[in-house]
């Protein structure tokens, strides 16, 4: 989700979830959020809290930077 200044957080949640052959619901249950949260996150319409970002990275056993990256806007 883009901020007013154009900054946003890009993610690779979808790619990691598909590689594990998991549904959005299964991932949501594993990290303690709703399926809707995973859905909007995968569409880059939601930036997770730091705690949730680390929880997702921990679940996939990767560094948080392997899934989430900060993109600086040009505004």
**Overall pLDDT:** 92
The radius of gyration is 12 Å
* SSE string: EHHHHHE
> N- to C-terminal separation?
15 Å
Identify the CATH homologous superfamily.
lambda repressor-like DNA-binding domains
> In CATH terms, what is the architecture?
Orthogonal Bundle
| Structure annotation, total helices | 5
Q: How would you describe the shape?
A: globular
Q: Which percent bin holds the helix content?
A: 40-55%
**CATH topology heading:** 434 Repressor (Amino-terminal Domain)
Total DSSP E strands: 2
Main sheet properties: 2 strands, antiparallel
Uncertain residue ranges: none
CATH class: Mainly Alpha
- Beta-strand portion reads 5-15%
Record the strand order, biggest sheet: 1-2
Number of structural domains: 1
Computed structural class = mainly alpha
Describe this structure in words.
The chain is mainly α and about 80 residues long. It has one domain (about 10-70): Orthogonal Bundle (434 Repressor (Amino-terminal Domain)), CATH 1.10.260. About 50% of the residues lie in helices and about 10% in strands. It is built from five helices and two strands, in the order E-H-H-H-H-H-E. It has a two-stranded antiparallel sheet. The longest helix is centred in the last third of the chain and has 11 residues, at about 50-60. The two termini are about 15 Å apart.
